[in-house]
Each structure stands twice: as structure tokens, then as C-alpha cells.
Specification:
The complex is a heterodimer of chains A (115) and B (112). Chain A is mostly beta strands and 115 residues long. Chain A contains no helices and twelve strands. Chain B is globular and about 35 Å long. The chains are: A mainly beta (115), B mainly beta (112). Chains A and B meet through β5, β6, β10 and β11 of A and β4, β5, β9 and β10 of B.
Chain lengths: 115, 112
């Protein structure tokens, strides 16, 4: 069975600093990969996705992620963090006959932004 | 284009009761999935429907069931509620198989 690990439960960065959130997955083949963000009490918003092709994908709000097959990783990055980026971030993999909507999520990383 | 709509947003039920949650997907989307989010277990997949058929099911007891209607709207039912069923229940829709999913705001269920 597939699994997703987000090693960092909490991360604090200063506003304007760069950000990298780590995600590692376990699966025999290349899954579909996603990053979602969740603000308190809200649903999940899709930041970006990787299905195939270029391993560096661009998303909304200035986020990007890089798929590294050799490391089974799909890390999320942003060059300059804004206070409004404070939220919880989830990495997810999709496999099976509906890899877009049958997702296995990591435990999440809560991002705090210092002024 | 309206997003995924879940009703109600908040619900309080008593142990032993049953509850029905509703999800209206994005117009044109045919796949609907349900997820449970709790502080202890995180986000877990419940089941997925496509064209009124349940095609995938997560590892949850039979008390959790669902259905999808011909207009793609979906309902989820939990019978004989337990305290541990308290959670945020999220619905997600996608256009077809193997396309990205968009989530609703969720229904916060509290079982007392």
C-alpha cells in the first residue's frame, strides 16, 4: 500500500524568507502527486499537481514543487513567504483507478510565519 | 463556477443516532469522494463514487455508507454514531477519473 510522510510537523519561518516543505512517498510506481493547503476550519485548496512530464511544477500563490523519482520526494517550495501563507500543508498521492480522487495524505505540516 | 458545496457546515448529534451529510460537486464533475479528518488519524479516504457507482472504499466500518445520484450529488450516512466519529468530513469532486480533486469546506460533526 502507498504511504506519504511529511517529516516536519511544524515549521516557523520569517516573512520574506524562503520555504521548503518536505514530502516523501512510498509506492511501487510513480503516483499522481499533490499539495493542498488548509486554513483553520476550512476545506483543502489545491496548490499544485504532478501527473507526468516536467518534474518541476508551478502552482498557485507562487508555490512550486519538484518531483525527484530517485528520492521518492515531492518537496514544496516558495522563494518568499507572506504572512497569509500561514496554514497547514498536506502532501498527497493518488493511485489506482481514480488517482485524482482517491488520495492518501501525509500527516501535514503546520506553517507559522513570523513578522 | 460554484465550488463544491457541503451541507450542513456544522452538526451536533447524540451517540447512537444516525446522520446524513450532503455534497454537491462542481458542475460537470462526475467523481465524488469523501474523506474524514481527525486530529489523531489525519485525513483518511472513505469512499469514491463515479456515475452513481461506488468504485473504491477505504478501511471504515459498514456504519459508513454513501450514495451518488444521477445529477452527481452525493450523500454520506453514518449510522449508530460513536464519539470517535466526531470529525471534519470533506467531500471532493473531480471531472473524471485521474483528474485533480477539489474540496468543499467540510461538515464538522460533533457526537456527544
Amino acid at each position: 500500500a502507498q504511504s506519504v510522510t511529511q517529516p516536519d510537523i511544524h515549521i516557523t519561518v520569517s516573512e520574506g524568507a524562503s520555504l521548503e516543505l518536505r514530502c516523501n512517498y512510498s509506492y511501487g510506481a510513480t503516483p499522481y502527486l499533490f499539495w493542498y493547503v488548509q486554513s483553520p476550519g476550512q476545506g483543502l485548496q489545491l496548490l499544485l499537481k504532478y501527473f507526468s512530464g516536467d518534474t518541476l511544477v508551478q502552482g498557485i500563490k507562487g508555490f512550486e514543487a519538484e518531483f525527484k523519482r530517485s528520492q521518492s520526494s515531492f518537496n514544496l517550495r516558495k522563494p518568499s513567504v507572506h504572512w497569509s501563507d500561514a496554514a497547514e500543508y498536506f502532501c498527497a498521492v493518488g493511485v489506482g483507478n481514480n488517482a485524482g480522487n482517491m488520495l492518501t495524505f501525509g500527516g501535514g505540516t503546520r506553517l507559522m510565519v513570523k513578522p | 463556477k460554484a465550488g463544491v458545496t457541503q451541507t450542513p457546515r456544522y452538526l451536533i448529534k447524540t451517540r447512537g443516532q444516525q446522520v446524513t451529510l450532503s455534497c454537491s460537486p462542481i458542475s460537470g464533475h462526475r467523481s465524488v469522494s469523501w474523506y474524514q479528518q481527525t486530529p489523531g488519524q489525519g485525513l483518511q479516504f472513505l469512499f469514491e463514487y463515479f456515475s452513481e457507482t461506488q468504485r473504491n472504499k477505504g478501511n471504515f466500518p459498514g456504519r459508513f455508507s454513501g450514495r451518488q445520484f444521477s445529477n452527481s450529488r452525493s450523500e454520506m450516512n453514518v449510522s449508530t454514531l460513536e464519539l470517535g466519529d466526531s470529525a471534519l468530513y470533506l467531500c471532493a469532486s473531480s471531472f473524471s477519473m485521474n483528474t485533480e480533486a477539489f474540496f468543499g469546506q467540510g461538515t464538522r460533526l460533533t457526537v456527544v
